[in-house]
């Protein structure tokens, strides 16, 4: 297969790549930024797609972020590729922050915080057996409620940032294309430094 590695990566190497890029976070961010800006879509479609991906990353439904991002992008007329790239906002480095923020926000909105907050009984066992019903009220419900306002704020913020950046990028690219297509007249022996003929006033 074209571009396939000569030596396939093992499981530990793949995990390391997910947690820590081979090059640097800065170069990875620049690469992702170029991938987004070079999409063949309108600034609104690009921005709406990225916003959908970012907003879906705040929900606790891991494994369904792509589907949620595509659904939100469809509703908001966003680009699907941009939505997929936007889900990169949720990654192993940001998930602990996102989960903590959504849980605390959900607890506050549900008014379920008491002065003596303890771990729900059987939470570890429920997580180990993937018992969704057992962890709904103590964990998933607060995270879901908290993800709505936080995801909305993050999505709107990303929409504005990506929209103006994409519009500026596309305008600069259009000017370069027009400048490259404009033929330049070759200077003649009688032309002055400005390119005008010596007989012209």
Layout of secondary structure:
Layout: H1 11-19, H2 25-37, H3 43-56, H4 65-75, H5 80-86, H6 95-110, H7 123-128, H8 132-181
Helix pairs in contact: 3-4, 3-5, 3-8, 4-5, 6-8
Explain this structure to me?
This protein is mainly alpha-helical and 201 residues long. The chain has a domain at 24-113 and 124-173. Helices cover 63% and strands 0% of the residues. The chain has eight helices and no strands. It has helices at residues 11-19, 25-37, 43-56, 65-75, 80-86, 95-110, 123-128, 132-181. Helix 3 packs antiparallel against helix 4 (65-75), helix 4 crosses helix 5 and helix 6 (95-110) packs across helix 8. It is elongated and about 85 Å long.
Task: Describe what is shown at a glance.
The protein is mainly alpha-helical. The protein is 63% helix and 0% strand.
């Amino acid at each position: 297969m074209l571009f396939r590695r000569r030596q396939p990566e093992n499981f530990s190497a793949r995990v390391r790549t997910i947690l820590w890029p081979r090059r640097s976070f800065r170069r990875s961010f620049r690469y992702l930024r170029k991938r987004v800006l070079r999409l063949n879509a309108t600034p609104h479609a690009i921005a709406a797609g990225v916003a959908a991906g970012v907003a879906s990353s705040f929900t606790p439904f891991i494994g369904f972020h792509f589907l949620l991002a595509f659904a939100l992008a469809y509703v908001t007329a966003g680009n699907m590729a941009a939505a997929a790239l936007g889900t990169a906002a949720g990654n192993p480095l940001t998930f602990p922050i996102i989960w903590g923020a959504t849980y605390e926000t959900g607890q506050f909105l549900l008014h379920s915080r008491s002065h003596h907050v303890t771990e729900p009984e059987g939470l570890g066992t429920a997580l180990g057996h993937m018992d969704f019903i057992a962890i709904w009220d103590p964990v998933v419900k607060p995270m879901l409620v908290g993800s709505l306002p936080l995801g909305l704020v993050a999505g709107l913020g990303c929409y504005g940032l990506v929209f103006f950046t994409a519009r500026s990028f596309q305008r600069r690219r259009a000017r370069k294309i027009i400048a490259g297509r404009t033929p330049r007249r070759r200077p003649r022996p009688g032309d002055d430094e400005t390119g005008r003929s010596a007989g012209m006033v």
